[in-house]
Amino acid sequence: MSSTPVDERQALLSKSNTVVLVQEYGTASSSGASTPSVIKPNTSRADLIWILGGLWSAVFLGALDTTIVATLVSPIGSYFEKSHQASYLGTSYLLSVCCFTPLYGRLSDIMGRKGAMLLALSLFGIGTLLCGMANSMEFLIFARAVAGMGGGGVMTVSSISVTDIIPLKQRGLYQGLANILFGLGSGIGGPVGGWINDTLGWRAAFLIQIPILILSAIVIMFKVNIKLPETQQTTRQKLARIDYAGSFTLVISVGSLLLGLSLKTGEDLEWSSPIVIGLLCLSGAFAVAFVSVEAKWAPEPVMPLRILTMRTPFFVALSNFCVSANAFAMLYNVPLYFSAVRLNSASEAGLHLLPNAIAVSCGSVFAGWIMRKTGKLYWLTLSSAIGVLLSAFLISSWKESTHRFHLWFDIVFGGFGMSSLITSTLIALIASVDKKDYAVATGISYLFRTTGQVLGVSLSGALIQAVLVSSLRKGIQGPDAERIIQNIRHSTAVIPTLEPTLRDVAIQSYQRALTTVFTCQVVLAFLLVLCCTPIEENPLPSAHLPILIVYKF
């Protein structure tokens, strides 16, 4: 083995098809620095394409599923006559993602990148299959939670794996390329999901994902081989390092908060209800317990406080939370606006997400190109946050007289800014920590993103129901008023069938409720701009991240 020192600027794949092992492996699972080595396994550029293709096909599936479900929330709620519970389809999935995402950073070290990705795809596939077979809203919500157990891992392990093999300065560009597939999945998920619902029924929108999922798993099984440095620890010792207590206390805290707010707004319980008070107190208690576990007892915490006490990681985490909450609230509520206020079909409502998906792809690629060309990201990040703010402001001003151009393209600024910001802040985070913390830092980023996503969907849904009920009760009077109100809440499909006066009240009530949510998103986007301001400008080295890559074909 050559003892020649490895130049950190050396390309990942040289002309001699050599893959370099850098001595400082970047996770806490390593047993120490390893000796620099050079492996020559007859690789080619096509090999790298296969690896990225296998990983990114899974990302495509995750994006496709997200927008399919966002588009079908209203039709599914109407099908089961439980539209007031429809937001739980997003909440259950994202809460499960929030719970399991932190574990995948550790599992990818223990099981290997391939093993962790296949586990994630298996859970995601089982959950998606169960969704297509669901015979009740409650079972469908449960199935979405099962899918979320894998969905979080798909995104996290894919990101960690790409970070392993791509030079940091080029990482943003490759993130942009990944987001092209993410944007493609997001773009076709809405209109295709709506079209499938209108022609074959909503169940087919879930079942059609299974063949693609199987193909993705096959590619990953045979083409993705990333070998981690050997350690002296047994599997039992590795499993003992997982922060079970931290993950448990986090999900109980977030879950109790969401359930308490949902019962208050969706089931018309009072704030003084013992159930609501108990759930909110339980949430606070477990939040304190989570912080205590992470600070004092967790052997390898899912949210290391030592990293969050650093300036850039802290504000990157907050900005990721804000932009994710804003983006997912928009993702679920814009189709609802076109279904309940504009009375569009599911396919038409989903089609309005297409410009956003295209913008997501372009924004991420643009951010990657800028960072690769300039090696800087501060002003890129700040301007991206301002784009999100502009989009939120424009959407909050939608009304009956709004021109169709705005209804189609106001969302573009938010999609472009969100994807650009997610890309640049991930690079800012990685560039601000030591190599040994790369995987953990990536996990923190996804933890705050998923927490933002689940709170964005659930809290916006709760707020919509609260304002909607209040507005409907003011506009609809008489002996049958409560029955009509419940029908409108439970199924947006009944709105076009109402007599003109009641239909106008229902449309205006949904308009008022959604405008309230969109206005709150303006405030959230403003906080996003403030959170991006303190992020530091760190140099972006060209060296590839420390990992041993072994290709087996």
From TrEMBL:
Record-linked SUPFAM superfamilies: MFS general substrate transporter
Location of the protein in the cell: Endomembrane system
Family matches, as PROSITE patterns: MFS
Limits of the Major facilitator superfamily (MFS) profile domain: 51-537
GO-annotated molecular function: basic amino acid transmembrane transporter activity
Entry keyword set: Membrane, Transmembrane, Transmembrane helix, Transport
Membrane-related topology note: Multi-pass membrane protein
Pfam hit, one: MFS_1
Residue stretches spanning the membrane: 48-73, 85-104, 116-135, 141-165, 177-196, 202-222, 242-263, 275-293, 314-332, 352-370, 377-395, 407-431
One cellular component term from this protein's GO annotations in UniProt: fungal-type vacuole membrane
PANTHER family linked: MAJOR FACILITATOR SUPERFAMILY, VACUOLAR BASIC AMINO ACID TRANSPORTER 4
Protein name: Vacuolar amino acid permease
